[in-house]
Specification:
Layout (H helix, E strand, L loop, with lengths): L6 H14 L18 H4 L1 H27 L12
């Protein structure tokens, strides 16, 4: 006579076998290439925004220096209030 197979035991062994197998990550994994891609090629709008911000900062510093040199009063009164 053949002993009946326990269904619960069979499911447990299937789960253990499935957990023991190595798991591969979903999708393809890309390795970084040897060639470095510049920021302007990856994010052109961000690079343009950074360039504009640097230009505006340099222009403001230049204008502040001229204002202090020639006392134009652009960034404040020429004579402090009394």
């Amino acid at each position: 006579m053949v002993a009946p197979v326990d269904q619960g035991a069979q499911k447990r062994t299937e789960r253990v076998r499935a957990a023991a197998e190595p798991v591969s990550p979903p999708g393809s994994v890309t390795l970084p290439s040897n060639e470095a891609v510049s920021l302007s090629e990856r994010h052109p709008q961000l690079a343009r925004l950074i360039l504009v911000a640097v230009w505006l900062y340099a222009a403001a510093l230049w204008l502040l220096a001229l204002d202090q040199t020639f006392n134009w009063g652009i960034f404040g009164p020429k004579v402090p209030p009394t």
